[in-house]
Amino acid sequence: MGARDARIDTYIAKSAHFARPILEHLREVVHSACPDAEETMKWSHPRFIYKGMLCSMASFKEHCAFGFWKGSLILNDAKADDEKAMGQFGRITKLSELPSKKVLTSYIKRAMKLNDEGVKAPSRTKPKLARELVVPEELTTALRKNAKAKATFEKFSPSHKREYVEWITEAKTEATRNRRLETAIEWMAEGKSRHWKYSNC
Q1: 121: in domain
Q2: Alpha helices, DSSP H, located in 34-100
Q3: Could you report the per-residue pLDDT of 13-25, keeping only the tens digit for each?
Q4: Which residues contact residue 139 at a Cβ distance below 8 angstroms, ignoring those fewer than 6 apart?
Q5: CA atoms within 13 A on the CB side of 171
Q6: Spatial distance between the Cα atoms of 200 and 13, rounded to a whole number of angstroms
Q7: Relative to the CA of 105, which of 125, 128, 181, 199 has its CA 20 to 30 Å away?
Q8: Minimal CA–CA distance to 39: which of 25, 56, 63?
Q9: Distance, first Cα to last Cα, the chain
Q10: Are 91 and 11 members of one domain?
C-alpha cells in the first residue's frame, strides 16, 4: 500500500480556500487509481511516486496545477498546456475545470503503465539562448585606436570574442585589467585568438 505524507496535509491546509477542495480531490483520485502511490514533497510541491515520479499537484495564489511527469506521453495536447501553467491542465481555479474522475483515472493508469515498463520521461531541457555579449567600454575604445586589432575582433566568432571580453572583465584589480587589455590588443593586432597558444587559430 502507498504511504501518505503529513507534509501534504499541511500544504493543503495552508493553501488558499479555493484550492483546498481541488487538491484534496486530486489526492484522493491518485490514491484511488494507484493504491501503491507514495507521497512526498519535492521542489516545494506535493508529488506522487510509483516506481518513479508519477504526477504532482501545486497551489498558487489564484490557481492550482496538476500534471504528469511523462505528460507528453499521456496527453496528446500536453505540450500546449504545459506552456500555460505547470502541469498539463492549465490554470485550475475550480473542480469543474478538471476532467472527470474516470478520465483522470485513465491518465493515472497510463502513467503507471509507463513506469511499470520503465519508459523514461522525454527531455525537458530547452535550447539555451545565447547570452548577449557586452563589450566593455575600455575594450571598444582600445579597438578603435588599433585598426588591425579591431578587424581581427570583428572577424572572430562570438565564442572567441567572449573569451577576450571575459578575460578582461574578470580581472580582480584595475592593474591586471589594464595589463590584460594591453595584451589582448597586441594579440588581436597579430590576428591571434585569446587561446592562440593552445590552438591553430
Answers
A1: no
A2: 71-74, 78-82
A3: 999 999 999 999 9
A4: 164, 165, 168, 181, 184
A5: 18
A6: 64
A7: 125
A8: 56
A9: 63
A10: yes
129 within domain boundaries = no
Measured CA to CA, the distance from residue 64 to residue 153 in angstroms comes to 51
> Quick check: pTM over 0.70?
no
Looking at residue 174, its amino acid is E
Report the sign of the C-alpha dihedral through residues 180, 182, 185, 186, in that order.
negative
- Which domain covers residue 79, as residue numbers? 6-116
Positive or negative, the CA dihedral 74, 71, 56, 94 is: negative
Cell readout for 76 is 496528446
Q: For residue 181, what are the contacts with CB-CB under 8 A and spacing of at least 6? A: 138, 139, 142, 168
Give all strands of the β-sheet with 53-59 in edge-to-edge order: 38-42, 45-49, 53-59, 64-68
Number of domains in the chain: 2
For 146, the grid coordinates are 588599433
Q: Is there a domain that residue 132 lies in?
A: no
Q: Where do we find the cell 539555451?
A: 128
Q: What is the pLDDT of residues 87-135, one digit of tens each?
A: 788 889 999 999 999 999 999 999 999 999 888 876 655 545 556 778 8
